[in-house]
Amino acid sequence: MTRHSLSYLASFLLLLSLTFSCEPCFADHSSSFPTATKGVINLRSADFAQSSVALDGEWKFYWKTFKKPYTPEIYSEFVTLPKPWGETQWKGKQLPSQGFATYEIKVILPHKRDQLAFKIPDMYSAYALYANGKLIAKDGQPGTTKEETTPYWSTQIKPFPASDTLNLTLQIANFRHSKGGITKSIEIGAFNVLEAQSNLDYALDFLLTGCMIMGSLYFLGLYLLGRHDKSTLYFALFCFCYSYRIIGTGDYTFHALFPAVSWQLAIHCEYISLFLAVAMFALYTRNLFPEDTPHKIMFCIIGICFGLTLITLASPPLLFTELINPFVALLVLFIFFAFYIYWKAYKNNRIGAKYALLSTVAIFVIFISLILAYYDIAYPEKRSLFIGYIAFFFCQSVILSFRFAYTLKKAKNDAETGLRVKNQFLSTMSHEIKTPLNAVIGMSHLMIRESPRPDQKQHLDMLLYAANNLLTIVNDILDLNSIEEGKIQFVNEALDISEIAQNIISGYTPAANDAGIDITLKLDPYLPYRISGDAKRINQILGNLISNAIKFTSKGWVKLEINIVGRTEKEVTLKIAVQDTGIGIAPEKQKIIFDQFTQIESSSTRGFGGTGVGLAICKRLLELQGSLLQLESEEGKGSDFYFTQTFPILEAHKKPEVFIDERPEEKPLQGIRILVVEDNRMNVLVVQGFLRRWGAVSDVAVNGQEALDKFDPLLHQVILMDLHMPVMDGYEATKKLRDRGETVPVIAVTASLAPDAKQNIFTIGMTDIVSKPINPELLLSKILNQTISS
To answer: Which of 673, 749, 684 is closest to 716 using CA atoms?
Structure first.
């Protein structure tokens, strides 16, 4: 909200407060009409079409007497109404609040008039009103003892028969409340006007109560379904508690809706709702601006409110209604205290503090008006109170909306920060894990090629298998992260699906043999020779599915089957299935098996290892390519994972091969000198071991700056460049080489490479990429490609 709109709202609240402070001038419409004198009020000249008239003034008063209409005159005194018994004297002595009495007055009315009616307020705490000897209104049952008296409160509009003169007899009894007598004016006016005004007042009460209850449920829902902000919870409870105050006091609208509710229950609810509402608002304020709240003072206020609530629950109305006077003083102090807290929060630039200040002004005006009405000083109009309540709850709702929006924004920023940190962490961990893995896998390859003994070769094979398995797990987690960020990339290239399937089966045959199961391959004989697809992703999907099948199969077999289910001249649709005779999956667990980090056996004593991301990655990779991974399984009998995917056909049949009988070179890189730029000593040894076997000569630089210094264009035909190094990284070193005009092939060798980083690598001038851990055959082919092309 802008500064101008805030000033307008402040001006509105100021005008509202002036309206409340001037309310007695408007409410005291009877000042222009005569008041009762010596038990008679002459309203012959009153215009009831314009306004109602309060029957205030001197009434005949009979203490400890229920005088019936038209009975012989007995001793009486004149008292001014409205006035409680505690402020009334009888025979020169102050009256107690408990007892019973009779009031009488003669009302002289105009000869010609419309239908008139009385507006009769609640009285302490039961009454019966007679007009010309006829009972026309009654609240509860007045009696001469506590047992005979049944209290009840309501506001009534009662028409009366046409007559020029009314002799009114009012019987009042009170034995259960700390106040006694009549404290509000009985009014007389046009029946249609009074009834319309009463209906409007009831409608405003119901509307405001409904809004508060709905607001309470709304904020309670925000608390339960949101981030559990306690200020939202306490404001919801405040709205709920205070909603009863709207219809359970004043005109007692609640009693008009539920007339059978007992006075005892209603009076307890009236006071408990007040004490709890103030306590909830104090807790709300404390949690709204905890840094600006003096907690000891606030705890005292809250403790007093809860203490008064307990007293109200445990004591009769005659006792707890005496507590209202000290509580009103506490309430006024609390309003000023809340204003101080909100002002302090405003000075400290807290969220929503401006609106908190405005709401404090509104609630201050409302409570002062209600206090004045309670002590019979002034009576605010219902519409003015309604506007004040709306202003207060509007400001409070804006405060909580700001907090909720701020919380959501903060959560969004935290999530984005966490995502950036996670990506950075994964990138770092990828590099830190793959770097030693490169040494393990590289050394294993070198040792296997050095003609080890059979038992040593078996151990090296196991070591290489374990290292590759760890590498697969790392790559799965990195791929999952790329998928979540929407950065996964697919490369369409020519591939032979039959060759891929055969290589995968060959790669997993040792693992299947170790598990004591058979692994087979069944290919459709009419498979095209060359199709277009992402060979890396196909390898990854099939590898995960077969690895998963082997892991959960203890006997029997695992089979990879590829069949044609549809074909045109340009495209072929394949059904690719991995079947096993393993443990199977229960129907209720088939729905969650594709969730991330989920296994069918997830207890601490589970018998199968793994991260539980393999199937999730397969599912997501296929979905991104427009396919769907499906499952058919029966517990104890096995599973069948399958998907269908359409590929463009590049070459339908295999071309005849020309067989050339030539021996592979033992030293394919003989005569080539390579500069290895790598800061990790173990990786240097691995790469130099490969190059030495291939006949190449290598020089080493441990960072980018040293590479710039050592590089000799007359000696070095290729540079193997690590990307992450101290002093100067591979990116900067390559850029400086290109700036110097060097055209030597630079092959990036890295353990961590984000999907969107490849473009940057080629942009700065690198010619190819090899990922760690290094695959010897792939590295050799990359070097040969660069040396041949150059």
So the answer is: 673
Protein fold of 23-191: Jelly Rolls (2.60.120)
Three-class DSSP category at 532 = strand
CATH no., domain 490-651: 3.30.565.10
- Please write the tens of the pLDDT for every residue from 596-611: 544 444 443 333 444 4
Could you report the per-residue pLDDT of 540-559, keeping only the tens digit for each?
889 889 988 998 898 899 99
Architecture of domain 673-789: 3-Layer(aba) Sandwich (3.40)
With 90 as the cut, is the pLDDT of residue 156 above it?
yes
Task: Check: pTM over 0.85? Answer yes or no.
Answer: no
What are the tens digits of pLDDT across the range 468-503? 767 777 777 766 666 766 667 787 888 889 988 988
Say which residue, 271 or 18, is predicted with more confidence: 271
Tokens of 781: 């082919």
Q: Is 357 within 8 Å of 285 (Cβ atoms)? A: no
**DSSP assignment, residue 656?**
P
What burial letters (b/e) apply to 1-38, b meaning 16+ CB within 10 Å?
Answer: eeeeeeeebeeebeebbebbeebeeebeebeebbbbee
What are the structure tokens assigned to 143, written together?
Answer: 């009696």
The residues of the chain that CATH labels 3.30.565.10 are: 490-651
Strands of 64-148 (E only): list them: 77-81, 83-84, 89-90, 93-94, 99-108, 116-120, 126-131, 134-139
